[in-house]
Specification:
Shape: globular
Bound molecules: iron/sulfur cluster
Helix content: 10-25%
Distance between the termini: 30 Å
């Protein structure tokens, strides 16, 4: 029977991606093999509580919304994450997965919207990127780049152009909170006519770095 180690399960507004602003049940799985310099969920690296799949589904149902986001940590670091995603889809939820792009996404249910946060140089974890994942993303999925500085921006721009990513996936560029001035990033995107969606992390503006929001 699938079991998941859960750091927190809570209701909030989706803070990023195409579903931004929608009331969403968040399931934050414990554990991550990466150590990004800007990580704001280091409290999910360890601890957590083991729950059976049935208990997770019950607790999600109790939150009373139709959108569910499975996040971490790095959720795919847990063996039973794909089973959780499929069970949530079977239960009729609109399901999204936030993943780092460092682990294989091939076992993820195709009904799930994947938001792959490919690591930029400024994260300090560039070497962990699993570029094979890019070929597995479809039109419903999203690629997110957290931009820490101009070097990150130019790296991301080159990647998008070389691989023509924006032609087949929605690409999100997000300024790293406290490191990249949002307005400057917006101006770079406009200057280059880069076909990406600029986004701010809504939850940071509403609740700062408070866990469970
Ligand atoms: S992948 Fe996500 S959870 Fe893991 S260290 Fe990086 S930002 Fe933090």
């Amino acid at each position: 029977m699938p079991r998941l180690r859960i750091t927190e399960l809570f209701l909030s507004l989706q803070g990023e991606s195409r579903s931004v602003g929608l009331p969403t049940a968040f399931v934050r799985l414990t554990g991550c093999p990466l150590r990004c310099g800007y990580c704001d969920t280091a409290y999910a690296f360890s601890g957590g509580s083991w729950m059976g799949l049935g208990e997770v589904l019950e607790r999600v149902a109790a939150l009373g919304v139709g959108h569910v986001c499975v996040t971490g940590g790095e959720p795919l670091a847990q063996r039973d994450c794909p089973a959780l995603l499929s069970a949530l889809c079977d239960a009729g939820y609109a399901v999204s997965l936030e993943t780092s792009g460092a682990l294989d996404i091939s076992a993820v249910d195709p009904r799930v919207v994947q938001v792959v946060d490919l690591k930029t140089p400024g994260s300090g974890e560039l070497a962990k990127n699993r570029y094979e994942n890019l070929a597995l993303l479809g039109p419903g999925d999203q690629l997110k780049l957290v931009i820490c500085d101009r070097t990150d921006y130019e790296w991301g721009r080159a990647l998008l152009r070389e691989r023509r990513l924006a032609e087949r996936i929605e690409v999100l560029l997000s300024p790293c909170h406290g490191r990249q001035d949002p307005r400057e990033l917006a101006e770079w995107i406009l200057e280059d006519r880069l076909p990406v969606r600029f986004q701010l992390q809504l939850h940071k503006y509403l609740w700062g770095d408070q866990p469970g929001r």
